[in-house]
From TrEMBL:
Pfam families for the chain: DUF1899 (PF08953), WD40 (PF00400), WD40_4 (PF16300)
Phylogenetic classification of the source organism: Eukaryota, Metazoa, Ecdysozoa, Nematoda, Chromadorea
Entry protein name: Coronin-7
Gene Ontology MF annotations: actin binding
GO biological process: actin cytoskeleton organization
Keywords attached to this entry: Actin-binding, Cytoplasm, Repeat, WD repeat
Top-level taxon in the UniProt lineage: Eukaryota
Length: 956
């Protein structure tokens, strides 16, 4: 972790990596090595006496490795037979560049052979390896020294980043004015930073903000001065290592010291950095690298291979596109890639040549074309490299490769007796497609740790030879995605944030909601033992006044609080004394401190842990208390209508209702999950299923999802990893488990029934992770996470009726920090916002309208859930496909209208709402049909052709 390089480098045949505790030495293994490897089972390069600053393979000679150190010269190593498992101390070439300065980093050229860029203090030297000299030198205006460099994919430009990520430059080394532009990049002072090119027109920099938050910036060549995209991630001391694959346009981000691999896509339009997948590894990152495209198992759908260097192992992570059949080569997944031969040599590039390397096909059926072309061309005589160290000769060897047949001769005699020959030059450039195919790799950890399972991206459709060519290549790699994938989290800004929020209670129990909102008010718990809750009106966004914070007085410590979903003015507060206070907040109330509770319910003799209102029944609330009881209370008559002890002598960690209000789930400290249906009777008679589901009794949350067919369980593992587990609600069998990250605070889930979107965040987090939950594989569809500049205490979501449908806002919420209350808007980018997006807004579950009274619910008289249409009046629905034509319709028989009485009861309100919703749906259907069906007044006999007049015969 202390090294400033990526820790591991990969060529098409070798892996080189840092050895733990041996800073100047590198381990080398064949790329197809697997199983447990000890030190005696690998080749060890005793490269330098001091820790290495950087090392890299030459892209067109996979057996040559360059290393540099602050106190020694640049060294080149040729590893022809890594299976010898010997220690190598003599480099094949030592390049004395004639400078007495420290070498910080290096970067081989992407298109030309024998060109290497090196960094010493604030200067960059372009080294001609054949001539062993610095051919070009550029000085960059930085305050300290350059930390990272990277070549563009066409080999014309060079990007440099220095001063610990604060300043950068774009260079054209061969130009008369080599500095194209200077950049101001990151504001933080991290120990490390990185810069790479993403293709030929964009660069990606990795550094830190001034608050020690990992930051990625993307710059475009059209405007180098201003970042095209800025993306912040989590606070950390380890830099994000950026690795870019030009064929798939995927950007891999691996944080040093973390176990999370973030896969994103670089796009030319917003969002520039589009999240694709987040994969949690079992081990922490020490280093990372991408494998060679020439080693991919294309017949298994492997499009990229990622290598993780951990403390005791190397984990290969194949990125595989699932297809129904792998019998055929899927050309849409594998574009032509860079071949094994350079476009030009060092002298040609220095003289202005920009010839690009030949691109080859990975199609196995065209395997022999490149071999035939290589054999027909006589390679030129090998070039000689004079080395100023004594070299040992090596016999003639044949490269073990399936994509070229070239004999490499390494002679040991010349005029000085110490010459080393480079590999033969590539054949003359021809117009061809040279396929590459290799045997299936099986790189596995060098220790006993098992390899990582592949990251699989599920595909929507099969690969068809005709349709696949029209599909986006990245979409094929991404596979099944959520229609909410590119969700935009829009903060409230100056006009949507309460400022000067003070005395926020940051020590509430883990089981608490943190704060809660209704459609009119927000309730914020205040610090102290008096259980004071401040209430702010959401429609009056402003800076809160100074002085004593006003609030309702519970006079005992607060444990949980929740608004009545059917009455936006009634707030329930659970207390440490076993009491639930219900407060009624009126607009004309001048002082909250003078209010008295409108109702007080003694629900337990011990502390109340959690309270949850029934989502369908009016004034029905579930209470979990410290005395191991789980009870359901009728607030109409202050009676306990049902109770049980779900976890024996242990208490509950969390409770949750199903969306239809018929089932109640409880997860407890005995590691079990219990599902009850109170209508069946008291106690164990109502138990549907019980099963052990937790690893740790530390904390957990539970909720129902996917129309109550899935149970979402959020909990900890034994090593403090935050995990989301999906269970089948019928038998509690595990459907899917996903590790989110590692933290000391529990992830609190929030679920939107209509969109099936799961929001995950914890106390102190600076981000909100979102997934669309599915009943079938892949179960959790990732969405773009929301990031914020500071941490928050909690978030809370509104009813669906509050959302601005015209702005394509599918959810709205609030974020509470220690000093502010900020509004959040979750929107989906759409072009035709003037039309109602029916795919994003299905008929919404009316969580703000009760379906049944408390007495009817306890009597077992349940009613179906109520759904309403969210389409605003006068807004036309968006129809993506034309309505099938209909020839003729019949006029409906008009019936006399019934005179409806005004609704008086809950049941009448529900029936009236259903009838109104049905009438609105019928009107929308009639309008859409009338707009698209023309009036046809043509009769069938008008279409019949008669005969000519002369064909009639007069028999008379």
């Amino acid at each position: 972790l202390s090294s400033g390089n990526n820790g591991i480098q990969c060529s098409s045949s070798l892996l080189a990596f840092n050895l733990d505790g041996e800073g100047g030495k590198l381990g080398v293994l064949p790329v197809d090595a697997h199983g447990r490897r000890q030190r005696k089972d690998m080749t060890v390069l005793c490269a330098h006496s001091e820790p290495l600053n950087d090392f890299a393979f030459f892209p067109f000679d996979p057996n040559v490795l360059a290393t540099c150190c602050r106190d020694e010269k640049l060294k080149l190593w040729r590893i022809n037979n890594p299976l010898e498992c010997a220690s190598i101390g003599n480099a094949h070439a030592v390049l004395d560049l004639g400078i007495d300065l420290y070498l910080e980093c290096l970067a081989p050229h992407r298109t030309a052979s024998n060109i290497l860029a090196t960094v010493y203090d604030s200067r960059i030297g372009i080294v001609d390896v054949v001539q062993q000299a610095i051919a070009l030198e550029v000085r960059v205006a930085v305050d300290e020294y350059i930390n990272s460099i990277g070549w563009s994919y066409d080999g014309r430009l060079l990007a440099a980043l220095g001063d610990k990520g604060r300043h950068g430059a774009i260079l054209d080394p061969r130009s008369g004015k080599p500095i194209v532009d200077s950049l101001s990049v990151h504001s933080g002072l991290g120990r490390e930073c990185r810069v790479i090119f993403a293709g030929t027109e964009k660069i990606v920099t990795s550094g830190f903000t001034n608050q020690r938050t990992q930051e990625i910036r993307v710059f475009d060549m059209r405007n180098w001065q201003n970042a095209e995209c800025v993306q912040e991630y989590s606070p950390s001391t380890g830099v994000l290592i950026p690795l870019y694959d030009d064929d798939t346009k995927l950007l891999f981000l691996a944080g040093k010291g973390t176990n999370k691999l973030i896969i994103t896509e670089i796009q030319s339009r917003s969002p520039i950095i589009s999240p694709v997948f987040e994969y949690v590894m079992h081990d922490q990152f020490v280093g990372a690298s991408l494998g060679s495209k020439l080693r991919l198992d294309v017949m298994s759908g492997e499009v990229v291979r990622f290598y993780q260097l951990a403390k005791n192992c190397i984990n290969p992570v194949p990125c595989i596109v699932p297809r129904r059949s792998y019998r055929d080569f899927h050309a849409d997944l594998f574009p032509e890639t860079v071949g094994p031969f350079a476009g030009c040599d060092a002298a040609e590039w220095l003289n202005g040549s920009d010839l690009q390397p030949m691109r080859v096909s990975l199609d196995p059926s065209r395997k022999g074309e490149l071999i035939a072309n290589v054999k027909r061309n006589n390679p030129p005589e090998p070039l000689e490299l004079n080395a100023n160290v004594e070299q040992k000769g090596s016999p003639k060897v044949t490269k073990d490769s399936k994509y070229q047949e070239v004999l490499i001769d390494e002679h040991t005699s010349n005029s000085n007796g110490n010459a080393h020959q480079l590999p033969p030059e590539p054949p003359k450039r021809q117009t061809l497609e040279a396929p590459i195919i290799t045997e299936k790799p099986a790189v596995e950890p060098k220790s006993g740790s098992p390899p990582e399972p592949p990251v699989r991206f599920r595909s929507d459709t099969d690969a068809s030879t005709k349709g696949a060519s029209r599909l986006s290549r990245v979409m094929s790699i991404v596979g099944v995605t959520s229609k909410y994938r590119h969700v935009e989290t829009v903060p409230g800004g100056l006009h949507g944030t309460f400022t000067n929020v003070r005395c926020v209670n940051t020590r509430l129990p883990t089981e608490s909601n943190g704060f809660c909102i209704s459609s009119k008010y927000a309730a914020i718990p205040l610090a102290g033992s008096a259980g004071i809750v401040s209430v702010v009106r959401l429609g009056d966004i402003r800076k809160l006044p100074d002085g004593v914070v006003d609030g309702v007085q519970n006079r005992t410590p607060l444990t949980d609080l929740i608004w009545n979903p059917f009455d936006e003015t009634r707030l329930a507060c659970a207390l440490d004394s076993g009491t639930v206070n219900v407060w009624t907040i009126e607009d004309n109330c001048t002082s909250l401190a003078e209010l008295e509770p409108s109702a007080v319910y003694k629900v337990s003799h011990d502390k109340v842990i959690s309270i949850r209102y029934n989502p369908c029944a009016l004034d029905v609330i579930a209470v979990a208390s410290q005395d191991h009881l789980l009870s359901i209370w009728n607030l109409e008559n202050n009676e306990c209508g049902w109770r049980t002890t779900p976890h024996g002598t242990d208490s509950s960690l969390a409770i949750a209702w199903s969306s239809d209000g018929r089932r109640l789930a409880s997860v407890g400290k005995d590691l079990t999950l219990c599902i009850y249906e109170p209508a069946r009777g008291d106690g164990e008679n109502a138990l549907i299923k019980r099963k052990q589901v937790l690893e740790s009794p530390r904390a957990a949350r539970v909720l129902f999802a996917c129309n109550d067919t899935v149970i979402v369980l959020v909990h900890f593992t034994r090593n403090s990893s935050r995990v989301v587990t999906l269970l089948d609600s019928d038998n509690l069998e595990a459907l899917h488990t996903s590790t989110i990250d590692t933290s000391s605070q529990l992830l609190v889930p929030h679920y939107d029934f209509d969109s099936s979107v799961l929001f995950l965040t914890g106390k102190g987090d600076r981000s909100i992770t979102m997934f669309e939950v599915s009943r079938s594989s892949p179960f959790l569809l990732p969405m773009a996470p929301a990031s914020f500049p500071n941490g928050h205490q909690a978030i809370c979501l509104h009813h669906k009726i509050v959302c601005d449908v015209r702005a394509v806002e599918f959810q709205r919420g609030w974020r509470l920090t220690e000093k502010s209350l900020e509004r959040l808007s979750f929107r989906v980018p759409r072009i035709k916002k003037e039309l109602f997006q029916s795919d994003l807004f299905p008929r919404a579950l009316a969580t703000w309208i009760p379906a049944v009274s408390a007495s009817d619910w306890f009597a077992g008289r349940n009613q179906p859930r109520l759904f309403v249409d969210l389409c605003p009046q006068g807004m036309q629905p968006y129809i993506s496909s034309p309505v099938p034509p209909v020839r003729r319709t019949t006029m409906p028989i008009e019936r006399p209208k019934e005179r409806l009485q005004p609704p008086t009861t809950i049941g009448d309100c529900r029936s009236e709402a259903l009838r109104k919703s049905a009438r609105e749906d019928r009107k929308l259907v009639e309008m859409s049909w009338s707009d698209r069906i023309g009036v046809d007044l043509t009769l069938e006999q008008d279409r019949v052709q008669g005969v000519d007049e002369e064909e009639w015969i007069d028999d008379c």
